[in-house]
Specification:
Blueprint lengths: L21 E5 L6 H10 L3 E11 L9 E6 L7 E4 L10 H14 L4 E3 L3 H4 L4 H4 L2 H4 L2 H4 L16 H7 L8 H13 L5 H13 L5 H10 L11 H8 L4 E3 L2 E3 L22 H21 L13 H6 L25 E2 L2 E2 L4 H9 L4 E4 L9 E5 L2 E5 L10 E6 L2 E6 L6 E7 L4 E6 L11 E6 L21 E5 L5 E7 L2 E7 L1 H5 L15 H7 L6 H24 L12 H9 L4 H26 L3 H15 L8 E5 H5 L6 E5 L1 H4 L8 H4 L2 E5 L2 H6 L4 E4 L19 H6 L5 H11 L2 E4 H7 L4 H14 L1 E2 L7 H7 L3 H9 L1 E2 L1 H20 L4 H19 L3 H4 L10 H6 L9 H12 L5 H11 L3 H15 L10 H17 L9 H4 L2 H9 L6 H18 L11 H4 L3 H7 L1
Parallel strand pairs: 1-4, 4-5, 7-10, 10-12, 24-25, 24-26, 26-27
Antiparallel strand pairs: 1-15, 2-3, 6-7, 8-9, 11-12, 13-14, 15-16, 16-17, 18-19, 19-20, 21-23, 22-23
Helix pairs in contact: 2-11, 9-10, 16-17, 17-26, 17-31, 17-32, 18-32, 18-35, 27-28, 28-40, 31-32, 31-37, 32-35, 32-36, 38-40, 38-41
Length: 1017
Amino acid sequence: ARGERRPVPLFKMSDDRYRSDVCSFICDLEGNLQYLIEYCNISKVIKLEEHESGQVVPFYDGDDKKKRLEFVNKTGNTKLCFGGDSQDKGIGDIRIVLLFLDFRKRYKDRVHFIIGNRDCNKLRMATELGEAALASDEVANDKGFPYWVPADKRVTPVEALAKDGKTSPANPAADRLKWMLKHTLGSDGAFERRKWELEVMTGKEASDDDVVQSYRDEVDPSKEDDKQFMLRFLKEACLGFTYGKTLFVHGGVCDDNIGYIPGDPKEYKTLTEWIVALNKWKTQEIEDFTNHPTDGLNSTDRKGHGLMDYGTPCGGCMPRFDPEGKPRTVICTSPLEKGNAALLTDTVTDFLAKSNIFNVVVGHIPHGDCPTVIRTGEAILVMGDTSYSDMGHKTTRKVNGTDQTWVDNRGGAVSEILVWFDGRLEVHGYRKDKAAGEVENQIEYQLRYEQADKYVGRKVKDGDMKDYWVKARYKDGRYCLCLGQGFKLSYATKTEEEMAALVWDEKTEPKDPSKGVFNEFMTPVGSLAGSVGDVLASAWKDATDLTTDLTKQASDLVVKTASDVTTGVQGLVSPAGQDGEKEEEKEEEKKKQEEEQEERKRKDLGAEELARGKKGVEHLKRRQQRVGMFFIVSKELVETGGVEFTGDPIDIHETFFTCFEGMDLLAMLFVMVELTRVQIEAQRLKIRIASYRWEPPSEGLPFVGPRGAESESKYQIPSNVGWFLRMIRDSKQIGWMDFLAHVGVNGTLAGAMKYMGWLYSANIVMPEWLFSLAKLAIAMTRGWIFQESAFGALDPEAVRCFFALLREIGLRMRQQAGDRAMMAEFFSAVGLAARLLACRGYEASVGADVKASFEGLKRFSDLGLRGELSGGEYNSLALKALGSRPSWTAVLHVEKLVLAEESSYAELSRGMQAFLCTALHPTLPSADAFLDLFAKSIVTAYMSRELTMEEDRERAVTSVAAAIVAQKGGELRGEGLVRACWQRVLDQIQADGDSLECEVCAPSEVLLPGEEGAARA
C-alpha cells in the first residue's frame, strides 16, 4: 500500500508562510479517496482529523475511523479550492463529496468548489434513469446520443445489450446505468465501485438496485441531505472563482470561451462581470433543474440541460446555445496542443490583465505525474490534474473482508498547488513513487517575485530538446522536462548548469506583474491581514499617497479653520508665488471645463435612463413601510445559523439595491433582518455599527433617477456602503448603518432616531475613517461622527490598523528628518490622532492639565527631526499642521508612541488602544460627570465649526449623549441637552474667575445651517 512508504511532509506545518492569505488547490479526485489521504499528508493548508461527525476514511494500518477535513490553521484565512471532478474512478465518490460539503459548511468563506464535467453530468441521472426514459424505445435506439461522442463510436443501449449477449434487460435500470457509465460518462467499472463503497459505508452487502438508487438519489432534491450530495455540491459550487490575482476554472480559458455565457449574446469585457454572470447562469440552471428534475428524457428541453451540455467536450455548441457552433465551455477546454503545452493567446492574456489576473489554475486534462506550468509573458497557467500519473496502477482494498482490486492510474504521485493572494505560487510533492522516500522524487519550487524559480514553466526553443517544457524542479536542484506528443509523454532530467546552456523561447521568459499595494503593505501589520486585509491595503495606500496629494494640490497658504488641516499643509509644502498663481489659474480653468462637461452630460441624458430612473423611484416608493431595528447580514451567515433574529429575512437586493447600477451584484449576497433589543444585547460582540456618508454625493456613487432630480438626494447610496458590506461579510459580523436601517428597508428616520443613540452607545463601531487619515480629517469635523468616535467602543482590528498606520508614518519621519512634506504629513497624523483621543476625554483620563500651553513645541524641537529648518520655521510648520488649538497631552503621547523604539512600542500602544476600544461612558459615575465632559467637547467642536450645519443637528449630535444620560438616570435630549452643555461651559468659565457677560439663550437657532448660525454662536 502506498501510504506505508510516504515520508514525512516536506515542510514544517508551523511555517508562517502558510498561515494566511494562501489557497490550496486540489482537483480531479475522481472518487480516489486514497489520493485525498496522500494529499492531506503533505498539505500545508488542510489535514484529516478524527471526528465522530466525519466519514469512514480507510488508513493503511487497517484503522477505519471516522475523519473529517480541517484547516491546519483553524483561525486564519487560508483557503481550499477543489477544482472539480469528484467522482467515477475510485470507491470514494460519496465520501469525498460529503467530506467537502461538511468542510464548506463549517468554513463557507474559506472552502470553494469548481464544477467539473464529472460533477455536472450527474444531473442526467434524474431523467435518464427515470421510468419514462427506461420505457422509451426512442431513447433505447437513439443513434444521435450522446452527441459529444463521435458518431462512429456511439453505442446505443440496445446495441450494448446485444454485445453482452442479451435481447432484453434483466434489470432495465441497472443495465441502463451501466451503459451510461461505460459509453457516455467515461467511467467503465464505476457501477461495481459504487457497490463496494456502499458496502464499506453500511457494512452490508449492496444490490444492483441499491447502486441505481444511490445514483438517482444524489441529484434528487426530495431526498435527505446526505443522499442528494451531488445536487448539494452543484448548488454550492461555481464555474469560476477568483482569488487575488488568480482565476480558478476546471478546464481553462481560450479565445472562444472567455467573456461568453451560453445563450447570452452579450460579450463581457471584464473578467469580473463575466465570472459573475457565468456563475449566475449556472445558479439559474441548477434552480430550474431543482424545480423540475424529472422533466424530459435525454433531449435539450429537460431542465438543467444547459449545464449538462456545458460539461461536454463540445459544450455550448448546440444550436440552442450558440448558432456559430463554437465550443465555449471553461469546463472542457484544454491548454494543450497535440498533447504538448501551448502558450496562452494574446486575447486571453490581455483579457486577464485588464482585471489584474495573471495566474490561471486548472484541472481536467491529465498531463503526467506532477503539475504542468505554462508561462506566457506575465501570465502563468498551472495544470493540476495528475490522475494519469501511473497508467495501469492498481489499488487493492478490503471490502467487508474481501480484497477488491481496480485500476486507479495514479500510483504514488501527489502534489499540492499553493496560491497566495498576491499572485505567488508554489508546488511541492512527489513524482512517481519508485522507491520509499527517495529524495530525487520530491519536487519543490516557487513562482513569482523574490523566491521564484527561473526555469519552471519555460519552453525550449531549439536544439535536441526543442519543444520540451520545464515541468518541475526537484528538491535537490535538478529539473524535470517534458514533451507531449498525443498521449505519449517523454521526460528528461537536467542539472542547473545544463539548463543554462539551453536556448529558450522568449515568450516564456519569467516576467512578474507589479505586486500592487496589497503585497507591499501587508507585511508591516502581520496578523492584522485576516478579515480586514483588503481594507488594510487601502489604508496603507492612503498613508503612502498623502504626501503626494498634498504636494499636487498645494495652492492656499491660509489655514481657514482649526479642522482644515489639509489646506494648511498644502500652503506649507508649496509656498505660493507667481508660479503658484499661474498653476491655480490652470486648475480653476480645468475645473470649469470639467463642470461644463458634466453639465452637458446631464442635459444629454437619454430617454432610456430617465425612464429607468423613474421606474426605480416608483419601485422604491411602493415598498412596504417597516418599523423596527433592522440589520444587514450576509446570506451565508443566515444560512449557517450565525445570527439570531426575528421574523423573515428581507431580500435587500430585490427590494432596494436592484434599482441601483453598480451595487446589485454585491448586494445579492446580503439580507436585512430585524433584531429585538434582547437579541442585540446577546449578540453585541458580533455587531458592528457604521455611519452614514460624510462627503457630498459624487458621480461615482450609484443613484436612482437622473442627476439633479429629487430622487438623487434621497436615494444616493453612501460612499462607504460597499466597503461596509464587504467588511461584515468577510468577518462574519452583523452590520448596522442608519441609511440602510431606514432608507434601505423603507423605515422612518424618526423611528430610527428613537433607538440609534442607544445603539451607538452600547455597541462596537467599525468606522471606515480609522483606515484613512484623509477620511479621519473629514470625520472629525462632523457632528454625528463626532459622537460615534467619542462614546462607543471602536473595533479592535480597526484601531490596531490605525496605530500601525501612524507607526509607519513615524518611522518614515525618522528616516527623512527635515523633509518638509514628510514633517507636514507627520504632524497632521499626530494632530488627528490627538483630536480623536481628546474628544473621548483622554486628557481627563490621564490626569492631564487641560490648560497646558504651547510649550510642548519644545518637545518636538528636541527630537532632532527638524533638519536644516530654523526653530521658527519648524514651530510654524508644526502649529499649522496640528491646528490652532491642539490637545497637547494627547499630542505628546501620540508623538511618543509613533516614534517609539520597537521594544517599547507594544507596551505604549496597548493602553492607548484599550482606551479607544472601550466605551467611555460606563466608567463615569453619573450623568453630571458625563455632561461635564460632553459639554466641553461639543462646545469646543461647535466653536471651531466642527459640527455639521444641518437643520436637525440638535437632535443628531445629541442622540447618543441623550441615551447615555438616560442610562444614568437623567432626562435631557435635543435642545435641552445643547442648552445644558453651553450653560456648563459658562459656569466653568465663571468659576475659574473669568469675567464673561453672557447667557445661553437660543441653542436651536445657534445650530442653524450656514454663516448665520455660526455668527450667533
